[in-house]
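REQUEST ID: PR-0412
SUBMITTED BY: lab tech R.K.
PRIORITY: routine
TASK: structure prediction, single protein chain
INPUT:
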Amino acid sequence: MRRILATLPMALILAFVVPSGIAEATSFEPDVGISFPAGTISAFDFDLAAGTIQARRPFATISRGDGLPDGLTVDAEGGIWLAIWGGWRVRRYLPEAEVVPLVLRGGLAPTEIERLAAALAPLVDEGTVVVAAVDFSHGLPAADAGRRDGETLAALRARDWTRVVGWGNEHLDSPAAVALLMETMGRLGAGRFELTDNSNSGEVSGDFASPVTSYIVGYFH
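STATUS: complete
OUTPUT:
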């Protein structure tokens, strides 16, 4: 940070207030992202030859209740990793990524799942990630939740989404989302499920006396 700031005019340095992180991104515009204690990340165009920056504009904002932006860095894919001081986490921003949310109603019939998958699959290319973000077994003791998770994992590995779509909260809170993901991946020739992790809130907190919520993380290939 000192090396970069030493090349900048004093007026620009004073305008930064107290930057808590500086990173250069080479795979997208803008070139430089700077986080500020005020809760915002600003982007600038950085002229390396002249040693100047210009065109300041907001890139992202961290709400006060979530903490404050701290150090940041840029990875090889152009993703910006930001430490949240007081928020106990790290966020990753992908400036060129477009998020398209799909909201599904409950009680979708298998024929509706098939029609949705048939429409979705042609839109998925090598640069697309399809994500189903759901809670799995919840409201049950840890031992019972573990058994339900076992049934869910068996269905995922068997590509049996018609079984999943008929389940309720004892297995997962959005059967239609997982069923649509499974059918879409099957149409794309990526029907094999690989488990990354399976846990529940009891294992995380150590409280096995209360009902738990399960988490299953994996991917299709």
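NOTES: The longest strand covers residues 52-61.
REVIEWED BY: pending
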